[in-house]
Amino acid sequence: MNVTLAILLAAALPTFDDFREADRARRESRQWQSEATGRLMQIEPVRILDVAKRHKADWELQWGVAELLTDWKQKRPHFEAALAASGTNTVIAIRFACAAATERQDELALKWLDYCQHHDKTNNVPWLAELWVLQAQGESDRFEPTGAGPVFRDCSGDAARARIRVLEAAGYSKYAARRIGFLPKLYAIQMAQDLRRGKHAEYVQQFLLNTAKAMQTDPTFLVTELAGESLESTMWGRQKDSLTKTTRQDELATRRTALGDLIHEMERRVETATEERMVQYFDDLLLVGEVEAMRLLGRDLSRPLRR
Predict the structure, then answer these.
(1) DSSP conformation class of 272
(2) Nearest to 187 by CA among 224, 212, 217
(3) Which of 73, 99, 135, 307 is the most exposed place for a label (fewest CB within 10 A)?
């Protein structure tokens, strides 16, 4: 073990109390984010790479390492190692394709998006990412979503599990590993938000409207539903007035208000939760989704949250 790595591994890692103190200060200042919390969320790449070196045959850990690293030249070989060791797992493939697309590795991205379109036929994310790449190239008229599936599956929950495993293997506590590992990489969601802008052919608008609705169907992360609502609102705004349009816009507004109330209640009540219960909250989130996990946490705190 080299000296730099030895120093890093000996350094103090963020604790539950560290996060709680930073969160309390953030709430008192009425901020959604703070520099203190941001510092606690930062990781040292050398610590993560050490996990990869110690577990070369573990495809999920190799994938988690790829998800945690930010430098593309470091990420790519770990994505490829995970794909090779897993027998070309389509979950990893879609994450790799979307990551490559955001790095403007268009040829690589389109290759793997085509693979996913043929091997994960119910998922519309490969089609969404293809549209995003083609629009950036100025060739969106080449987009033919005839095989697009009805499900929005960006595999962010699976990626979170992989990141958590890596962080725990790197020495982080169960809570810190989940808190840091749950920060979702919003590849497909950001693409959907980008595609809200600009003009689209009518058939593309319909594809985006279908995608927006799929994003709101039992998502793991609340941000996916919120982004779907935003995209759907934009698409409805470009259509002629109708009873269907008005009714759906009213439903979206009501749901958005309810989710806003839920988030604010969660912010107030989470202060009383123990470290063990917060670990359970994150595990519940992966099993039943963020909204239901909030409701379960509220129930256990004896102050039921509204849904």
Answers:
(1) G
(2) 224
(3) 73
